[in-house]
Inverse folding.
């Protein structure tokens, strides 16, 4: 019985060690806030090393941050197509600033996104609805001036300007 008990105990230790080994990369990866601190210190390569595993695991803030790094070429080679890919992933999870970046991408045909005014306005509106102030202001200006394929609509313009200026 002792021999059988030992093999069960040894099997549990192996299982525990395997679980710890699987959890270590996540623990070593750091948090989103640690990535922000590295970014603020202009240690972009470290920020990338911290954010990439988080982004790959589905953290929308980290996905957006990795997109920013690729868009600006900070810590990685500048690559607008890769930036757009990360923005798409974050936007799909409701990240409002990523939605705004997609709207810009579609408006200008950046990052491998084909120029598409309807998609640009769609993502701009979603970003504005998600609370991103810059998107709210641009949407308001679009309604105010009848730009971006939007009708001139003073009521909508006022609505979005008011939202953008609310604290």
């Amino acid at each position: 019985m002792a021999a059988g008990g030992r093999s069960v105990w040894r099997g549990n230790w192996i299982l525990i060690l395997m679980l710890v080994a699987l959890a270590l990369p996540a623990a070593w990866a750091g948090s989103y806030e640690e990535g922000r601190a590295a970014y603020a210190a202009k240690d972009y390569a470290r920020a990338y090393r911290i954010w990439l595993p988080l982004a790959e695991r589905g953290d929308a803030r980290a996905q957006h941050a990795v997109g920013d790094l690729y868009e600006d070429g900070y810590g990685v080679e500048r690559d607008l197509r890769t930036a757009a890919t990360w923005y798409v992933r974050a936007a799909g999870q409701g990240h409002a600033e990523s939605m705004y970046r997609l709207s810009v991408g579609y408006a200008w045909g950046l990052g491998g996104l084909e120029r598409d005014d309807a998609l640009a306005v769609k993502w701009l509106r979603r970003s504005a609805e998600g609370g991103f102030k810059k998107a709210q202001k641009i949407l308001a200006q679009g309604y105010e001036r009848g730009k971006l394929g939007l009708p001139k609509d003073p009521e909508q313009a006022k609505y979005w300007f008011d939202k953008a200026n609310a604290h």
